[in-house]
Amino acid sequence: MKGKSRLLMVLAALCPLGLSAQGIADVVAALEKTGCFEADATFNVSLPQSENDVVYNVKLSSAPAPSSRLSPCDYITEWSLETPSGPVKGFSAYFDGHHYRYRNERLQEYHLEWDSIPFMARGNSEGVQASAQFTDLYPAYIAKELTKMSADSRYALTVKPDAMFDGKKAVEVKAVMTVNDVEAMEKRFIFDSSTGLPLRIDTESNPGQITEQSMLVSYTYPAEMHCPELSEETLTASYPEVFEKYRENNFRIENLAGTQLPTFSLPTTTGERYTYHRGDSFAVPTVIALLDPTAGFNAEIVEAVRGAVDRLPVQADVIWVFNSTNVDAIESVVPQIRVGEHLLMNGKSLARDCGAASLPVVIMAESSGKVKNVVLGFNKELGNVVLQTMALVE
């Protein structure tokens, strides 16, 4: 049996999962109706040849995404693992065609508008948003898994409607995968009868063989659940060091045009402080140059920006922002500031908040604080780009 017909005929007489359940289809329906979701999960992996289990602590948070073709929910997953050398942490997130995953001091990001291929399923491989570690622990993804199992002749599914778990009424779903007459995997899901939420997942892979592996997932829930607020800004605020140190591409900075400059408050080389709040206006149109004093072409960038500003028919200010606190190194690039210029240091946070994975970057902003144009790196046309852009802003 395949498809929905097999789904409906697997077993009958389920007890209520918050509704009048009749079979696997009702379990799936209840999972798909999960709204805002939050849970702490313990993910325990046991191997016969190892004395110590591998134990992950996982924090799950998701919001339904019914109109999305790529994922049934938006999510942020945070995990940690204790190792002999200390704790290891990571996260993954998906929302609105954007996927981020961080582990081992590497932040990978995928954006649908840049490249749709990583998001597409190919054969038995899911897209990046669905294959991130622990994504299969979300109710919406468990629903997808049960649906696939129900349509796969290798699986035999049974439902126990009157199970008990931790003193509570529960529904147990057992899936056994058989390949060439050999049991390859047994998986047992336990759901709360009243809410339909998962309570425990047990998986036995290759039972009785040297490659046997056991996985146990236990869920705990807060008193109230809330949908996560997901955007690049909220991720950057939650993981400032990750985005500052380990970002591998310039997606954010290249899409900065048309948005407001982020808030920043940075020291000058003379011990003062320059502060700008998002949404505030500048006195005049302003060029912000994000620089690394150790990089090449700094002298050429300063010359190009100043030359363009000098040729403008209107006044424009320049803010030189360095990612260093080495005053001598900074002042070797900009020995003296001119009228309308500001020399700031320790600007890693501003580069991070703008999404600049590498420097130099030259940002051109209207007096309203809205970004008009961005140039990454140095090229011989920088002066002309600054001149043409700034001549048209107000």
What features would you describe in this structure?
Mean pLDDT is 90; it is low at 1-16. Helix 2 runs antiparallel to helix 4 (139-150) and helix 8 (298-311) runs parallel beside helix 11. With 394 residues, the protein is an alpha+beta fold. It has helices spanning 3-9, 24-32, 128-131, 139-150, 232-238, 240-245, 251-254, 298-311, 327-333, 348-354, 382-390; strands spanning 37-46, 54-64, 73-83, 86-95, 98-103, 106-111, 155-165, 168-179, 182-192, 198-205, 213-220, 264-267, 273-276, 286-291, 317-322, 341-344, 361-365, 371-376. The radius of gyration is 27 Å and the shape is elongated.
- The chain-level mean pLDDT equals 90
User: What fraction of residues sit in β-strands?
Assistant: 35-45%
Radius of gyration: 27 Å
> What is the N-to-C order of secondary-structure elements (H for helix, E for strand)?
HHEEEEEEHHEEEEEHHHEEEHEHEHEEH
Number of strands: 18
End-to-end distance, in Å? 67 Å
Q: In this structure, how is the largest beta sheet organized?
A: 11 strands, antiparallel
Can you count the helices?
11
Shape: elongated
Q: Give the helix/strand class.
A: alpha+beta
Helix content: 10-25%
For the biggest β-sheet, the strand order reads 6-5-4-3-2-1-11-10-9-8-7
Low-pLDDT stretches:
1-16
